[in-house]
Amino acid sequence: MTSTHPNEAAVLDSDQDVAASLSLQLHTLGIRARYYRSRRRLLEELDRRRPQLVVLALEPGRIDGIAVLRDLSRLGYVGAVLLLSGVERKVVRIAERVGRTLGLLMLDSLPKAFRLAELRQRLDGLHPLPREAWQAPAAPPARTVEEIERALTQGEFLVYYQPQLELAGQRISGVEALVRWRHPRRGILVPGQFLGAMTLEQYRRLTRCMLTGVMADVARWPTLQELDSISVNVTPEELMSEELLLLMEELRAGLAKAPPLVLEVTETAAMDDELLGGEVAARLHLHGLELAIDDFGVGFSSLARLQMLPVSELKLDRSFVSHLQEEPLDAAIVEAVALLGRRLGIRVVAEGVESLATLEALARYGCTHAQGYALAPPMPAEALAGLLTRHAG
């Protein structure tokens, strides 16, 4: 018989002393811990016990923590995962990124030698999972081309906006436009639940829906016209499209005033051979569009190539921001990228800001802009317009 343990944590660690100490501290925080030394045993009991938290040791030895992350994803685990690490921070980051890519709810990891206050901070905001979350498997990602085709035809894709804060003036200076799917049965879906199922042609149509939606919102809500920039994510293939430039000219011609549009590509994509000469970025610039490099710092950029590209914005990857105050290496990287941005005349936006305390450190290291849930989550245009009005007042 399946039982539900919403206040239970499953701890997988080969070190019994560490597990015992952790179990005691979890108990202090109101979470009962169940200790496992075997990966197989944990996976066997996962569906039956259904804990709200899995604490996973990441260390050399018998337990392959990254393999366990893949197991948790395969089994549809919907709780949170906390890595307890005894290895180099760089390895932990890889594991965290693997977990997030697999769709797991990854909490900030802990070193093996930690204090109760640190554990409490990691678990802050972690609530017992509702019973209904366990009574049915998590909704699978939408995978059918036909379903996406219907959504494109019937206008089910929406534009949400996440504000960017200018640190010097403490004002909302820009936004990033993010796609959401208003699914008729499953509610609001995020990109990870459907982008991978799209054909190239469907993705192109989605980009055009996004751009059209952004311009319609700018026309509908005059406060959006006061922004310094609106960013939209595109692929390198989109940047190479003559149709994209023509569409942008047509959309902007219908507006008396519109903020600059910034097209975001990932760092790896921006450094591909197609863009190395800067032809595409230069054409965007000539057409009054700007180019941003997303997830900066996780690829392998050539700084000489970056200097050649007419880039207006670097978006510093969240992996450098989330541990900024605890990791001297992260702080050094943020400071170096901020200095690079100033020297090249490029905005530097820190992504993934989840703590207001991080803002002071970002400003101290020379970062000019920030974006993240600590400032504001993605929201519909009408909510953004209201936020801009209140912020201006």
TrEMBL record:
Cross-referenced SUPFAM superfamilies: CheY-like, EAL domain-like
This protein's name: EAL domain-containing response regulator
Superkingdom: Bacteria
GO biological process assignments: phosphorelay signal transduction system
PANTHER family: CYCLIC DI-GMP PHOSPHODIESTERASE PDEF, SIGNALING PROTEIN YKOW
InterPro entries: CheY-like_superfamily, Cyclic-di-GMP_PDE-like, EAL_dom, EAL_sf, Sig_transdc_resp-reg_receiver
Domain EAL: 141-392
Residue span, Response regulatory domain: 8-127
SMART domains per the UniProt record, alphabetical: EAL
A GO MF term: cyclic-guanylate-specific phosphodiesterase activity
